[in-house]
Structures are given as C-alpha cells and as structure tokens.
Write a structure and sequence with these properties.
The protein is an alpha/beta fold. The chain contains eleven helices and 20 strands. The protein has two domains: 1-130 and 206-309, ANL, N-terminal domain (Rossmann fold, 3-Layer(aba) Sandwich); 315-415, GMP Synthetase, Chain A, domain 3. The strands form five sheets. It has a nine-stranded mixed sheet, sandwiched between helices. The chain has a four-stranded mixed sheet with strand order 19-18-17-20, with helices on one face. A three-stranded antiparallel sheet has the order 10-11-12. β10 and β11 form a beta hairpin. It starts with a helix and ends in an 11-residue tail after the last strand. Bound molecules: zinc ion.
Amino acid sequence: MLLETARLLWKIRNEQWLSPEILDDIRQKRLREIVHHAYNNTRFYRDLFTKNGIAPSDIKTKEDLTLLPPTTKSDLQDRFQDLVAVGYSPENCYVYHTSGSTGTPATMLYDSFAKAYTGAEDYVFMFDVGYKPWEKIAYTKRTPWTSHPLQALGIMRACHILSSLPEEEQARLLQKVNPSLVVSYPLLLHSIARAARNEGCNIHPKAAIVGGELLTPQVRAFIEEVLSTSIFETYATVEFATIAKECSLHNWHIHSTRCLVEFVDGRILVSGLINKALPLLRYEIGDRGAPKEGVCPCGRGYPMMQILEGRSGDLFILPNGREIPPLRVFKTRLILDSNEAAKRYQIIQEDYDHFTIRVVPTPAFTDVIAQQLKAQLVEDLQYPATVDIEEVDTIPLIDDRKLRVNISRVRKKCCEDSG
Ligand SMILES: [Zn+2]
C-alpha cells in the first residue's frame, strides 16, 4: 500500500501540470473502462443500460454520458448490493458511511487502489500548500488518526486533536503540537482561532486545509489573520473523496482524471473513474455549482469549477418557489461575524415564511444587533418573512465537527418523494 501510494503520489503530482487536452484523453480512456466495468459487473448499471436501450459502447465521451439518467443517493441507499461490483464486498474493501448531515446515511466502498489513489491525492495537496514531509500535521477530527509506518521514522508525523474537546483546549493542544499544517473544518477552525486569540495561544501553521461546509470570506480572513496562515479549501464527499481543491490563486481545480464532473442546471453530477468496487456514474451529489471557463495562471491543467452555493439541503425555499442558496444570506451572517456577536449561530427556516436565527451570544450581542439581523435577513431573502431571534447556550456540531448554518424545515413539493 505504501509503495503504491508513493508511486501514485509521484504520478499525480506530475499529472496536474499536463495540458487540458492530455488530461481529457486520460479521462476519456478511464471513462470507457469504468462504463464497461459497471455494465459487466453490477446489476444496477446492467439494468439501467438495458432499461434505457443503450450499450456500454454507446458511451465514449463525456457528452455521451447524458444518455444515462443520473444515479441518486436513494439508489445508493436502496440498491447498495446491486451497485457493488462482482468480487467486491465490505470484507475486502474500505467502508465509509456518509454522516447523514444532509439526509439519510449511505454506505460507500473503496477498493484498495482507489483508497491509495485518493490518499496520494491528499498528500499531493499537502505538499502543494507548502507542507514538507518532515514537518508535523494536526488534524482536528472526531475519530482517532490511524498511524502509518512512516510516522515512526519521523515522516509525515500527524497529531490528532479530538474535535469534541472545548475549543480553548484544542487551541492549547495546537500550540503544544506546533504543526506546520492544520486539517480541519471551516467553522470549527474559526472557533479554535477565536479561542486561540482570547487565550493568547501562539499557533502559526504554514497552511490550513478545510472543507465540508461553506467558508465565508469574513471567516477566512479572521482565521488567516489570527493564525497568520493561508487557508486552502477542498470540496470532498464520502462517495468520491476530494473532488476539487483550491489552488493558491483561489481557483477550484477538479480532479478530472478521477472524477468526471457535470453541471446540469446547477446540479453537480459526478462519475467516479477509478473506484471499481462501487462504480457510480452521473451520481447526483446534492450540491450546486458551475464550471469556470478559462485557464488558471497557476499552470494546472485540471478544469475549474465556480464556488459552490453550498449544500442544496441548505437551500431556503420561499412561498413563491424561489430558492435562496446559503451565500445569499451572507450579509446576515456578516453582522454576527464582523461584530463577533455569536459563538455559533444557525439560520433556520421553520416554515415557508417564518425564520429563526438561533444564536449562542457573546457579550457583544445586543438588541441593536438582533434588530439588524431581522432586517438584514428580510433584505437578503427579498421576502417579508417573520424572523425570530432565539438565544441559546449551545449549538451542537454535527458529528463533533461540522456546523450546519442554514437549516430548512420545509421541502419543495417535488422533492418530497425522493426524500
Ligand atoms: Zn490554479
């Protein structure tokens, strides 16, 4: 495994600088292979191809993929056995579960090559952001870090900081570890940075890698200033690991030779090109995004995507059917962020025209700010909704790591059937 990862690391590190045309060729070849594999080895895709009257040989390019209807999260939940390829099972694969933060949990399998491949991609990213193998990494995670043999030799020493500890404690541990790279979640790292500043902790990693939730410019600027570091975001899911990552020029590059990404009416569909254990074609992740045209001056050949509007589960749907993505309520969040008026907060749509802003207040939280919040949310929504402010002692993180800021308790009629 270790040798395989090292070989892949070298390969991927070089691959990212290839021209878009060469990368397209690699992608095309892998697409044809995985389509045949999925057809020949899974009942689900054999059924799907047959039902739609198409053969694997009909799909040669990204454009041909549109012949195939998307695979959904419900398919993964309900027809898991039919999606697992012949010869693979949870016993001979790496097993992962989605956290269920945006719905019902699902199980995903990675074969050992796919696992090594995604691992190598992560290492490439770490080196790209300036990390050196003899330096220390700190992960703020809820699950323990699995050690690897190289650690004993002082290579890629990683320290796991339990994300369920109080933020002050996590800040003190980070100071003690003194890592050159921190891997965390945006809002968790924001809380840690705030605690670090209040406690006078001295934490200055070269870089911080975050992902999993929306990072507002305000939060990014705060963390970068307090920790005097640079933040790099990743876009990852349990089904595909890291799909895209941010370069130093703040462009999101798609791992296009492993993940073929389509944008259909703003919805993101991903086809995994490497993982043979559980092939997923045109899988609808439930997030929204758009392609970004052009070439990035950083020199990477991987295609770019535009910043996500966040998890579609966090969309607010107004009585007139208009959808409000998380970024649209950015100014409401800015009031709390810039005044440091809340330790944590959530914006909850209770009903189509009724919202609650739930706040764990700091001493800076005042009635004036509460009034500003109400007015700003109405303005952001461009709808005269009723807005209540609820002050609470705590808001738990999902799985001790992520905070879901936008929560909608209403669903669009057409979405109810698919769950
Ligand atoms: Zn770039």
